[in-house]
Design brief:
alpha+beta; Ubiquitin Ligase Nedd4, Chain: W; Nucleoside Triphosphate Pyrophosphohydrolase; four-stranded mixed sheet; three-stranded antiparallel sheet; 9 strands
Length: 187
C-alpha cells in the first residue's frame, strides 16, 4: 500500500520520477522521498540428530493448509539471529541454537505485488517439544524423503530444502554451531 501523506510534515504525497527514473512518493512541501523497501523474513531449518527437519502446517494465508519452514518477518529491534530463534519458538515451541547461515533467497509475491528477502539459518533443538504456534496448526519433524514439493507453501522453502537434501547427500552438515552470534551495534 502506497503512503498518501508525508511522515515528516503531513503534506499529501505526489508520484515523481526521481533517482534514475524510479517513480516514488515525494512530498512537494519538504522534499521527503519515500523508499519502499522489501521486508526481511528470517527462519531456520531445524534438524534433529536423526536427520529429520521441523516443518509447520500453516494456519493462515499465504499458504494456508501447506507446510513450511519455521520463518517469519523480522522486527525492527531484532538481529536476524534473534528473529530466527523467536519465529521458530513462536511457530513450533522449540528453542534452537543457530548454526551457520544456510542461505539467502529473494522472492516476489504476486498477489501483494511486492518482493522480499528470506534469510535461513541451520539450527538444532536445545529444548522443547513440537507444538502448533502463533500462525501454525501443527508442527512436526519429517524425514527429508517424506517432504514433497507440492506440500510446501513457498518456492523459497522448496529451494532451500532441495539444497539441504543435496548437502546431506554429499555428507555436509549444516547445523554445526560455530561460536556466538547476534552482536548488537552500540550507539
Amino acid at each position: 500500500m502506497e503512503p498518501r501523506f508525508c511522515e515528516r510534515c503531513g503534506h499529501a504525497l505526489v508520484q515523481c520520477a526521481v533517482e534514475e527514473n524510479h517513480t516514488r512518493p515525494v512530498c512537494p512541501a519538504c522534499g521527503f522521498i519515500v523508499y519502499r523497501n522489501p521486508p526481511l523474513a528470517v527462519g531456520v531449518i531445524v534438524e534433529r540428530a536423526d536427520g529429520k527437519v521441523a516443518l509447520v502446517l500453516r494456519g493462515e494465508n499465504p499458504g494456508k493448509g501447506l507446510w513450511g519452514l519455521p520463518a517469519g518477518f523480522m522486527e525492527i529491534d531484532e538481529t536476524t539471529e534473534q528473529a530466527a530463534q523467536r519465529e521458530c519458538f513462536e511457530e513450533t515451541g522449540l528453542t534452537v541454537e543457530l548454526g551457520n547461515l544456510f542461505g539467502v533467497w529473494s522472492f516476489y509475491h504476486e498477489q501483494k505485488r511486492t518482493s522480499g528477502v528470506l534469510v535461513l539459518y541451520a539450527a538444532r533443538v536445545v529444548a522443547g517439544t513440537p507444538r502448533a504456534g502463533s500462525d501454525s496448526v501443527e508442527a512436526r519433524f519429517f524425514a527429508l524423503d517424506e517432504i514433497r514439493d507440492e506440500q510446501l507453501a513457498f518456492s523459497t522453502h522448496r529451494d532451500a530444502l532441495a539444497r539441504w537434501r543435496e548437502q546431506r547427500a554429499q555428507g555436509s552438515r549444516g547445523a554445526e554451531v560455530q561460536g556466538s552470534r547476534g552482536a548488537r551495534e552500540q550507539g
